[in-house]
Amino acid sequence: PSVVRRQDYLPPAFWIDTVDLCFDLEPAKTRVLNKMRVRRNPAAPEQPLRLHGEALNLARVLVNGQGASFKLEDGLLVLSNLPDDEAGFDLEIFTTCQPDKNTLLSGLFVSQGTFFTQCEAEGFRRITYFLDRPDVMSVYTVTLRADKAAYPVLLSNGNLVEQGELEGGRHYAKWHDPFRKPSYLFALVAGQLVAREQHIKARNGCEHLLQVYVRPGDLEKTEHAMQSLIASIAWDETRFGLHLDLERFMIVATSDFNMGAMENKGLNIFNTKYVLANQATATDTDFSNVESVVGHEYFHNWTGNRITCRDWFQLSLKEGLTVFRDQEFSMDMAGSDSARAVKRIEDVRLLRTVQFAEDAGPMAHPVRPDSYQEINNFYTVTIYEKGAEVVRMMHTLVGEAGFRKGVSLYFERHDGQAVTCDDFAQAIADANPESELARLLPQFKRWYSQAGTPHVYAVGQHDAAAQTYTLTFTQKIKPTPGQPDKQPAVIPLRVALFSASGQPLQLQLQSAEGIEPAASEHTLVLHDSLQAFTFANVPEAPIPSILRGFSAPVVLHQNLGDEALEVLLEHDSDPFNRWEAGQQWAQRLLLAAIGAGDASAEAAPTPTVLPERFIDALRQVLRDPQLDAAFQDLMLTLPSEAYLAEQLDVVDPQRIHQVRQAAQRQLARALAPEWQAVWEAHQDTGAYRPDAQSAGRRALAAKALFMLCLLAAETGDAVWPGKAYQRFKDAGNMTDRLNALTALVHAGHPLAEPALTRFHQLFKNEALVLDKWFQLQASAPDAGGRGLHKVQQLMQHADFNLKNPNRARSLIFAFTNANPAAFHREDGAGYQFWADQVIALNAINAQVAARLARALDAWRKLDEPFRHHAEAALRRVAAQDKLSKDVREIIEKALV
Ligand code: HT7
Ligand code: ZN
Fold first, then answer.
1. What is the pLDDT of residues 446-481, one digit of tens each?
2. DSSP label of 554
3. How much is the pLDDT for 322?
4. ipTM, 2 dp
5. How far is CA 622 from CA 625, 633, 670, 679, 681, in A?
6. Cα(610) to centroid of ligand 1, in Å?
7. Which of 424, 555, 710, 735 could form a disulfide with 668 if both were Cys (CB 3.0 to 4.6 A apart)?
8. Taking the complete model, does pTM exceed 0.95, yes or no?
């Protein structure tokens, strides 16, 4: 396989200063005339000009208006004997491509009769020959020509400078983007679209036109996206002093898209899933996702577009930083401290289930990878979520104001440039020369170069005579592929201490200089494999609260007894660690139950997994009127099956499922009166609002209904399923409707079937709602082992379409990634199905296929008989001769 290595980076041999593109748009054959001003890079060794190109038909190449000699070598257009003029030369290339055959959705493609582009990471080379690398930045002028009736709206980056009529019912629009940009930020859209528009005036007095383009009929679903955009603009001004630099900012939605959205300069292209939302069709989660994705793409305008990446190994430079920014934006929008904590918990749950698993598996890679075969495989949770945690640790180490200073310095130094992760870290450290970050910068940057999750072991020792309490920490990172030896990481640990009755204690940290001033919390900074910290004047053995707010992306091991966890669960003033205490306790109980029985010898699941004391603690949480509903909901959620699997060396997915289900049923039974009270107390009749508070109340009510329906499945009670069906029918919003339907489906109640039929009937013309319909069925419990059969049946449904990534994800991925008990079958049929779908998708859309391929990343940890079936399925895929390099990289790494 051909491997791209970070250490092989060389600056480009040429610069492309300006690009003038003219498109004659036709679905079957689009003509592209590309006129560039090219100049040799004096700093690079002399080489021919090698332009990237893929799936293009080349018609003409002219240099300074004359026919030029060129070669096509491995997909590259190679031009030598070029003019040696310092001022450069004109290069004109004429090609055609076939957008309607482009099922890969990279480059120029057609979705429902509209042209769209997707150029990140390497899609521009599917539009024209170019130096398709992020460090080549150019000024673009783009003319779009198309049939006016079929494509009335013609959009590209920047400002509209001209438009008019052409012969034969055609028309044109000319766009100019004054900002230099890399080719991956180029975009065009042409089709029958309508826009919600809003004029805004920024703080600095500049006026801007904001537009959200959708298909006719979807306009009334764009209000939330527009409000989210306006909020994002205001937030970036307030929090970072970054203003919108364009006259016009456009968002366009498409239903065929490989990812969530794309930050093309001034012309963001979005998956409809992250734009369209109204209360009838979108859930609270959808509303909140729209807000955060609109924010994320908007924030890229500075972190990604104004300053971009030197090469794709630096991808986290823009993605980690922008995820950090969108997380902070969502927290600020959520409002209360409790709502902020809920958002933090949700982010950490994603990190710990998906990213920690990635870091422990065959695809483990550093936040700044050293090599790749296919860059599209590196848009990962490590680059995004772990990358955001690295930025968050910098923020913790230099503080809020210091971080803002650092970001300002970063823009002062690098605006308009293509830079590296080192440049970012250096700017934050240089702006805060007295900080621990500046002191420890070379070690801190190991977060960029070392893969794997650090494990931190904490031991507390109280010295009654000296009245001191010492916390001793050791840290260790397990080997990952290609990295057998690891160095200690810099780990900021926010720490507090509590008395045995849960009172917060004042901390007096002893240092070489003496005793530091008393504080309720300290940030201890680990940087060695063994370190101890001593607190003075601690009369009794305290209970430590470590890693508050999840201040570093590590696994913390501490031997706290159940009593201590109970105290923290009830009293920790840090909501994250309060939640974490409950999770730690639940995890310990569930893992003990999983390990306690031989699954094959034990037909019935462990009947009582949770002791009365644990249930009592949760009962208090559920009864506490001071707590926000969203927080109560999270406290009452047991660790997921995926998270539990992550804690085990040998995984029996069926056993994990049985035990978690048993615990869930126990909570349903033991807390039935509380669930009823919760349901009654959260019957809001007010107008629907998707804010964090209201969404939290709906989520908690949904959990109550879910539990009561689960219990009804045991007792035969008809009341709660009846109420669920009623709610399903009468709900005034999609959140309540879908939650009620979910309760019926997961309880396996007979009313689930008519409800599903009715749901389909109601929403058969709403693609995003149909996705939910497929997804719910694909992730439903595997009653009698029929889950796989159900999914296979649904693949034959008239509304299923493997070519549409959202639909493929909602059915196939929901089954393989979110329904472990149905997917991991003892007969291996789930894996065979997975292999069939990877092979089928590979021929349509290699990027989506490669994502699906990752569902078996952790196959080596599986217990038998799962493991040998999984291996056979992987080997079957590996043996395919027409495998894309995307899928091949994933499968080969899994089989190493
Ligand atoms: N920067 C965007 C990445 C992206 C992408 C990458 C590969 C293939 C298709 C893609 N669509 C969007 C998304 C983001 O992080 O904002
Ligand atoms: Zn991004």
1. 999 999 999 999 999 999 999 999 999 999 999 999
2. -
3. 99
4. 0.98
5. 8, 8, 12, 11, 12
6. 43
7. 710
8. yes
CA 374 to chain centre: 19
CATH fold of the domain at 575-895 = Zincin-like fold (1.25.50)
- Closest ligand 1 atom to residue 293 Cα is 16
Residue 297 CA, closest ligand 1 atom number? 16
Does the pLDDT value for residue 599 go beyond 90? Answer: no
Per residue in 359-377, pLDDT (tens digit) is: 999 999 999 999 999 999 9
Give 309-449's CATH code, choosing from 3.40.47.40, 2.60.40.1120, 3.30.950.10, 1.10.390.10: 1.10.390.10
Give the pLDDT confidence score for residue 600 in this predicted structure: 45
* Exposure b/e, 343-380, CB count within 10 A at least 16 = b: bbbbbbbebbbbbbbbbbbbbbbbbbbbebbbbbbbbb
CATH number for the domain whose boundaries are 455-559: 2.60.40.1840
**In this structure, is the dihedral angle defined by the CA atoms of residues 416, 422, 425 and 431, taken in order, positive or negative?**
negative
Instruction: Report the nearest atom of ligand 1 relative to the CA of 258.
Output: 9
Say if ligand 1 is within 6 A of residue 268 CB: no
In whole angstroms, what is the distance from residue 510 CA to residue 507 CA?
10
For residue 297, indicate whether it is catalytic: yes
For the Cβ of 347 lying below 6 angstroms from any atom of ligand 1, the answer is no
The answer on pLDDT for 603 being more than 60 is no
Measured in angstroms, how far is the CA atom of residue 305 from the centroid of ligand 1? 13
Q: What is the pLDDT of residues 732-783, one digit of tens each?
A: 999 999 999 999 999 999 999 999 999 999 999 999 999 999 999 999 999 8
SS3 749: coil
Would you give the distance in Å from CA 471 to the centre of its chain?
35
Q: Nearest ligand to the C-alpha of residue 254? A: 1
